[in-house]
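Attaching the record inline, Q. Sequence:
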Amino acid sequence: MLVLDGKMASASVKESLQKETADLVAKGKPSPHLAAILIGNNGASETYVASKVKNCEEIGFRSTLIRFPDDISEQELLHTVDTLNKNNDIDGILVQLPLPKHISEQRLIEAIDPSKDVDGFHPSSVGKLVQGLPTFIPATPYGIILLLEYYNIPTKGKHAVVIGRSNIVGRPMSILLSSNMAKGNCTVTICHSYTPNLVEIAATADILVAALGKPEFVTADMVKEGAIIIDVGITRVNDDTAKKGFRIKGDVNYAEASKKAGAITPVPGGVGLMTIAGLLKNTMQAYLNNRG
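Structure, as predicted:
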């Protein structure tokens, strides 16, 4: 059984980006610049953004973190996004989700210039993805594709089952796996909370992507012998025996599933690291698109 190590795969992506950035700087060009907007003090969001900033620094990217309190007005946020859109020194813009309830997530996403939409959430980016046109791919699905590439996992003609239909992971993942590209050409089934016989369908998957946000939902009876399992879930579960008082659990029961899988991503240490790799790749692409 192969462990699909996100640390190794993301390090390979970052090494390549670091060299590309160093070459740009050596030619007298500025390095790529990512701007992140963080609202409030959600612990998970703080961790994610800090990791993104750290990874930018490690490969030579510039980053700007803009922080706002929970009670910031939607109008002020939209004004900030507009300012970043017009700033030619900013290559990529991301708004860390989730947002306070009084702010429209969709309105904020649509306000980002599509040429700087490194999260790949803008309707323009999504439309191009559906049509198979060059675009920014949402970072987590992009990271998964990069992981499959790193380990040379065959996908052509395979049956892929995606559990979860979010706009951030499930839907774009299903599009990528069914696309006519190197790590695509799968026959894809999307499952969700209303899917009858979900267990039986999952058990037919050559490639199983779990992205529903329910800890250890996928059990051994849902895994085909030799299946490739991609666990997107990351949930804090209270555990008094743990040093921090909690443990991070994926959507897959790793202990059970790993006994049947041909390959599996660990949690943590799998898809999460690849998400950042996907974001960094998108930021470099935005830089190249906008600055040539």
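Residues 23 and 189 are 43 Å apart (CA to CA). Residues 6-26 form the longest helix (21 residues).

More tomorrow.
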